[in-house]
Known about the structure:
By secondary structure, the chain is mainly beta. The chain has strands at residues 6-8, 11-14, 17-20, 43-47, 54-56, 58-60, 63-68, 73-78, 83-87, 92-97, 102-103. A 4-stranded antiparallel beta sheet has the order 4-10-7-8, with no helix packed on it. A 3-stranded antiparallel beta sheet has the order 1-9-5, with no helix packed on it. It is globular.
Amino acid sequence: MGHFKTLDLPTFADGRGSLTVLENALPFQIVRSYWIYHVDGKMRGGHRHQKTMQALVALNGQVDVYMFDGVREETIILNQPSQCLLVEPKDWHTMTIHAASVLL
Protein backbone atom coordinates (compact mmCIF):
# COMPACT_ATOMS: atom_id res chain seq x y z
CA MET A 1 0.00 0.00 0.00
CA GLY A 2 1.10 3.55 -0.57
CA HIS A 3 0.26 6.97 0.84
CA PHE A 4 -2.97 6.06 2.64
CA LYS A 5 -2.81 4.19 5.94
CA THR A 6 -3.79 0.56 6.21
CA LEU A 7 -3.64 -1.67 9.26
CA ASP A 8 -3.12 -5.39 9.54
CA LEU A 9 -5.63 -6.25 12.25
CA PRO A 10 -4.70 -8.74 14.99
CA THR A 11 -5.71 -12.17 13.66
CA PHE A 12 -5.57 -15.55 15.33
CA ALA A 13 -5.83 -18.75 13.29
CA ASP A 14 -5.87 -22.44 14.10
CA GLY A 15 -7.57 -25.58 12.84
CA ARG A 16 -10.98 -24.14 13.73
CA GLY A 17 -10.61 -21.06 11.52
CA SER A 18 -9.54 -17.44 11.92
CA LEU A 19 -10.61 -14.70 14.31
CA THR A 20 -9.76 -11.04 13.65
CA VAL A 21 -10.07 -8.42 16.38
CA LEU A 22 -11.03 -4.79 15.76
CA GLU A 23 -11.24 -3.84 19.43
CA ASN A 24 -8.36 -1.55 20.50
CA ALA A 25 -6.76 -1.85 17.03
CA LEU A 26 -7.86 1.54 15.68
CA PRO A 27 -6.37 4.96 16.46
CA PHE A 28 -9.85 6.18 17.46
CA GLN A 29 -12.84 4.93 19.42
CA ILE A 30 -15.64 3.25 17.47
CA VAL A 31 -18.85 5.26 17.74
CA ARG A 32 -20.93 3.68 14.98
CA SER A 33 -20.61 0.52 12.92
CA TYR A 34 -22.45 -0.67 9.83
CA TRP A 35 -21.90 -2.92 6.84
CA ILE A 36 -22.85 -2.60 3.19
CA TYR A 37 -23.81 -5.61 1.06
CA HIS A 38 -25.94 -6.68 -1.96
CA VAL A 39 -24.29 -3.89 -3.95
CA ASP A 40 -22.94 -6.13 -6.76
CA GLY A 41 -20.44 -3.86 -8.48
CA LYS A 42 -22.09 -0.52 -7.85
CA MET A 43 -20.24 2.45 -6.41
CA ARG A 44 -20.88 3.93 -2.96
CA GLY A 45 -19.42 6.92 -1.18
CA GLY A 46 -18.35 9.78 -3.41
CA HIS A 47 -17.76 12.22 -0.57
CA ARG A 48 -15.48 13.22 2.28
CA HIS A 49 -16.34 13.89 5.90
CA GLN A 50 -15.83 17.05 7.92
CA LYS A 51 -14.75 15.37 11.17
CA THR A 52 -15.45 11.65 10.93
CA MET A 53 -12.63 9.14 10.62
CA GLN A 54 -13.56 5.74 9.19
CA ALA A 55 -12.11 2.25 9.17
CA LEU A 56 -13.08 0.12 6.13
CA VAL A 57 -12.82 -3.68 6.17
CA ALA A 58 -13.93 -6.02 3.37
CA LEU A 59 -15.43 -8.82 5.44
CA ASN A 60 -16.09 -10.88 2.31
CA GLY A 61 -15.11 -10.48 -1.33
CA GLN A 62 -13.38 -7.43 -2.75
CA VAL A 63 -13.87 -3.69 -2.41
CA ASP A 64 -11.88 -1.20 -4.51
CA VAL A 65 -11.54 2.10 -2.64
CA TYR A 66 -10.53 5.20 -4.60
CA MET A 67 -8.91 7.74 -2.27
CA PHE A 68 -7.97 11.37 -2.96
CA ASP A 69 -6.68 13.70 -0.24
CA GLY A 70 -6.40 16.79 -2.45
CA VAL A 71 -2.80 15.98 -3.44
CA ARG A 72 -2.45 12.23 -3.92
CA GLU A 73 -4.83 9.67 -5.30
CA GLU A 74 -4.73 5.91 -5.12
CA THR A 75 -7.04 2.92 -5.46
CA ILE A 76 -6.69 0.48 -2.61
CA ILE A 77 -7.99 -3.07 -2.98
CA LEU A 78 -9.44 -4.57 0.17
CA ASN A 79 -9.85 -8.34 -0.11
CA GLN A 80 -8.73 -9.73 3.26
CA PRO A 81 -10.91 -9.44 6.39
CA SER A 82 -7.78 -8.79 8.45
CA GLN A 83 -6.91 -5.67 6.41
CA CYS A 84 -8.28 -2.26 7.40
CA LEU A 85 -8.11 1.05 5.50
CA LEU A 86 -8.26 4.26 7.53
CA VAL A 87 -10.18 7.10 5.89
CA GLU A 88 -9.29 10.54 7.27
CA PRO A 89 -11.80 13.43 7.13
CA LYS A 90 -9.78 15.05 4.31
CA ASP A 91 -9.99 11.94 2.11
CA TRP A 92 -12.47 11.91 -0.77
CA HIS A 93 -13.44 8.26 -1.21
CA THR A 94 -15.57 6.03 -3.39
CA MET A 95 -16.02 2.32 -2.89
CA THR A 96 -16.73 -0.15 -5.68
CA ILE A 97 -18.14 -3.19 -3.94
CA HIS A 98 -17.87 -6.34 -6.03
CA ALA A 99 -20.57 -9.03 -6.24
CA ALA A 100 -21.18 -11.01 -3.04
CA SER A 101 -18.91 -8.66 -1.06
CA VAL A 102 -19.56 -7.21 2.39
CA LEU A 103 -17.94 -3.94 3.51
CA LEU A 104 -17.76 -3.08 7.23
